[in-house]
């Protein structure tokens, strides 16, 4: 008999199970970067459920089992994950990642995702990006941009488009999963006090060599003006 699985939470079920006190992933000892990443990746979407079940070439079954049985399944079943479960995962990451500070220090979510997806589970990169003649592969996209006065409360669509434009980036192909990390902020500085989630993301203008219509005549465009 295979491992138990619970489907991601949707619509009314998501509100019922995830709303209220003592819901979500319990924070402890600078775990917020990991708690937020795990909640985003698994609570309401199944797009990365292969991480929980697939026997990837490099896959560490112990880490995979903790992720599935102690974090994702309780989150989807009861809406709550204990800090001790996340600490169990952090201890395993510390053992596997040659990095002694996963159990106590705050990390960048990208560092966590690269470690668990690439080194521990052996998943192929999710994104192919092109800048000029250079093509690069990665697991998530970090939004980088200068402060823009006209954006007070932006949505994710605006941030992704402006970030791609300022970095001269294009998506080589439509990604199976597009993990986006919002602009950095710390205790001293926040670029935006709020960001509105875009429930759908239009990547038409972000795709390399994608046919698009001319904004003047409506025919297929031959030139792109930034």
TrEMBL record:
Q: Which GO terms describe its molecular function?
A: cysteine-type deubiquitinase activity
Q: Which residues form the Peptidase C19 ubiquitin carboxyl-terminal hydrolase domain?
A: 24-203
Q: Which GO terms describe its biological process?
A: protein deubiquitination
Q: Which UniProt keywords apply?
A: Cytoplasm, Hydrolase, Microtubule
Q: Which Pfam families match?
A: UCH
Chief subcellular location: cytoplasm
Q: Which InterPro entries match?
A: Papain-like_cys_pep_sf (IPR038765), Peptidase_C19_UCH (IPR001394), USP_CS (IPR018200)
Q: Which GO terms describe its cellular component?
A: microtubule; spindle
Question: What protein does this entry describe?
Answer: CYLD hydrolase
Q: Which organism is it from?
A: Hylia prasina
High-level lineage:
Eukaryota, Metazoa, Chordata, Craniata, Vertebrata
What is the gene called? Cyld_1
